[in-house]
Design brief:
Keywords: Glycoprotein, Glycosyltransferase, Membrane, Transferase, Transmembrane, Transmembrane helix. With 461 residues, the protein is of the alpha/beta class. The chain is 56% helix and 11% strand. Strands 1, 2, 3, 4, 5, 6, 7, 8 and 9 form a nine-stranded mixed beta sheet that branches. Strand 1, helix 5 and strand 2 form a beta-alpha-beta unit.
C-alpha cells in the first residue's frame, strides 16, 4: 500500500467515524428523522470510498496519470451535471385560489445609511410602494439620514404608513432589530437599499409560505446592465479602454450572481437546500424574529471568540431558521426577481468578493461542524455547494485538469497534443458557461466581453 492509498484509507476511516457521530447526534435531537434517513448519513462516505478506489486503481495500471485525470474530472464536474438536472426539475411555489398571504400581510424593512445612488434609491422605493405592503420602515444610521429619507419620499407615500427610525449606528443587524418592534404583520421582508423589485415581487414570492413548514424565502437575483457612455474628454483609445473596463466589471458582477441563481435553484429542487438566502431581499415569518432568543443571538454572534460579528446577517438567519426545524424555499421566477447594481465606479465589487470569501470561511465550517443540521436535512447541498466552496480554488483545479493529461502516455505518443489541450480547456470553459447562460442569452454581446475582452468596445454598445 503506497502513501496515497494510506492517506485515502485514513480519510475514509475518519469520515466513517464522523458519519457515525452524525447518526448519534441526529437521533438525540428533538423530532429526529426516521431510522432509514438517519442510516442514510452513511452515504456521506461515498466520496472517501471513491478516493480509495482511485488510489488503488492508479496502482494497478500503467497509465496512472490517466486514472487521476479521469478522477479529477469526475470529482470536479459531477456536481455541475447533478445541478443541471435539478435546475431543470425546479418548480416555484404557486398561489392557491385563496392565498394565505397577500401583500398587505407584509412589513418591509430597509436598513440604510443613505442613498449612494439617488436614481437606484428612488427606483428601489418606488418598486416597494408599487407592491403595496402594509408598512414600509426605513431604519437609518443617523437622525439626518432619517430626515433625508422622509424628504425624498415626498408624494410617493402610497402605503398606509411609512416609518423612519434612527438606530444611531451604521450596523445592519442593529438597524434591522431597531424596527422589529414595529412589525405586526405575519411576514417580514428585509431589503437592501440597492434592491429594485419586480412590480409583482411580493405576489410571486408569498406563495412559498403556503406550506406551513416554510419559514424563510429567498428570491431570484439579477444585475442591472449599465450603459457606459464613452468619455469624450480623453482620446478615443483611452475612452474605449475605460468603456471596456466598466463593462467588464458590470458583466463579471452579473455572472457572479447569475451563478448563484443557478446553484440555489438547483439545490432547492434537489433537497430544499441553499448555501445562503441573500440578504438583498428575503421574506421571513415574523414570529421567527419575534422569538426572544433571536434578537440576543442576532446581535451577539461571535466567531472564535471574536465579535460581535456585524457582517453575515443573512447567513445567520439562514442557519437559525433550519436549526429550528423550518424549511427554506427559493422562489426563482421572472416576477420574484430583485435587481441590483454591481461593478460600478468607484469599484465595490472586488471588496464585496473579499467579504463573501471571508463569509464562506467563517460560516460554512459553523454550519458543517457546529450546527450540523445540514448533513441530514440537505445532504446533496452539502456536497454540491457548501463543502466545495471551501476548496473551490478554480485556478488550482483548472490548472491541474490541464496539466494532468500532459503526463499520460496517450498525450506523449499523440501527434495532436494541441488538440488535446484545446479540448480540455474548452470542456472546462463550457462547464463554467452553463451556469451563466441566462445572462449571455439575454445579452449575447457580453459573451464577447467574457471571452474576448479586447473586442468588447466594438461589439457591446
Amino acid at each position: 500500500m503506497d502513501a496515497s492509498t494510506t492517506v485515502a484509507t485514513v480519510l475514509l476511516c475518519a469520515t466513517f467515524l464522523w458519519t457515525v457521530f452524525l447518526i448519534y447526534d441526529v437521533c438525540s435531537r428533538p423530532n429526529p428523522p426516521s431510522a432509514i434517513r438517519s442510516a442514510g448519513l452513511l452515504c456521506h462516505n461515498i466520496p472517501a470510498m471513491f478516493l480509495v478506489g482511485t488510489t488503488m486503481a492508479a496502482q494497478s495500471v500503467e497509465t496512472t496519470a490517466l486514472i487521476w485525470f479521469a478522477a479529477l474530472i469526475i470529482f470536479r464536474y459531477w456536481r455541475t451535471l447533478v445541478n443541471i438536472y435539478f435546475w431543470l426539475q425546479y418548480k416555484p411555489a404557486v398561489a392557491s385560489t385563496n392565498p394565505k398571504f397577500r401583500a398587505e400581510d407584509c412589513t418591509v424593512i430597509v436598513p440604510t445609511v443613505g442613498p449612494r445612488d439617488n436614481t437606484v434609491y428612488k427606483e428601489m422605493v418606488a418598486a416597494i410602494l408599487v407592491n403595496h405592503p402594509e408598512l414600509l420602515i426605513f431604519s437609518t444610521n443617523t437622525a439626518l439620514a432619517t430626515q433625508e429619507k422622509q424628504h425624498n419620499l415626498g408624494p410617493m407615500k402610497v402605503v398606509p404608513e411609512t416609518l423612519m427610525l434612527n438606530a444611531d449606528i451604521s450596523n445592519k443587524r442593529k438597524q434591522v432589530v431597531r424596527a422589529f418592534s414595529k412589525v405586526t404583520t405575519d411576514i417580514l421582508v428585509i431589503v437592501d437599499d440597492t434592491a429594485i423589485w419586480h412590480p409583482r415581487f411580493l405576489q410571486a414570492a408569498l406563495p412559498a409560505f403556503e406550506s406551513k413548514n416554510v419559514g424563510f424565502v429567498g428570491t431570484r437575483k439579477w444585475v442591472k446592465r449599465l450603459h457606459h457612455p464613452r468619455d469624450l474628454t480623453v482620446n478615443i483609445f483611452a475612452g474605449l479602454w475605460k468603456q471596456c473596463v466598466a463593462g467588464c466589471w458590470n458583466t463579471i458582477g452579473a455572472i457572479y450572481l447569475v451563478r448563484h441563481n443557478f446553484e440555489i435553484r438547483a439545490t432547492s429542487a434537489a433537497d430544499g437546500g441553499v448555501f445562503c438566502v441573500s440578504g438583498r431581499s428575503s421574506l421571513i415569518r415574523s414570529n421567527i424574529v419575534h422569538d426572544h432568543l433571536f434578537e440576543g443571538a442576532f446581535l451577539n454572534k461571535y466567531v472564535l471568540g471574536l465579535g460581535p460579528v456585524m457582517a453575515d446577517d443573512d447567513n445567520f438567519i439562514t442557519r437559525w431558521v433550519i436549526n429550528r426545524g423550518w424549511d427554506i424555499k427559493i422562489q426563482s421566477s421572472e416576477e420574484a426577481t430583485m435587481t441590483t447594481t454591481l461593478g460600478t465606479y468607484p469599484l465595490k465589487f472586488p471588496d464585496q468578493c473579499k467579504r463573501w470569501s471571508r463569509t464562506t470561511f467563517r460560516q460554512n465550517p459553523i454550519a458543517l461542524f457546529v450546527d450540523r443540521t445540514i448533513w441530514w436535512k440537505w445532504p446533496l447541498t452539502v456536497w454540491t455547494t457548501i463543502l466545495p466552496w471551501l476548496y473551490n480554488a478554480a485556478l488550482f483545479w483548472d490548472s491541474l485538469a490541464v496539466y494532468t493529461p500532459t503526463q499520460t502516455g496517450m498525450y506523449e505518443q499523440s501527434h495532436h497534443r494541441v488538440a488535446i489541450l484545446c479540448a480540455t480547456v474548452s470542456f472546462i470553459w463550457i462547464t463554467k458557461l452553463v451556469k451563466t447562460i441566462p445572462w449571455f442569452w439575454k445579452y449575447p454581446t457580453d459573451f464577447f466581453l467574457y471571452f474576448m475582452i479586447p473586442a468588447y468596445p466594438l461589439f457591446a454598445y
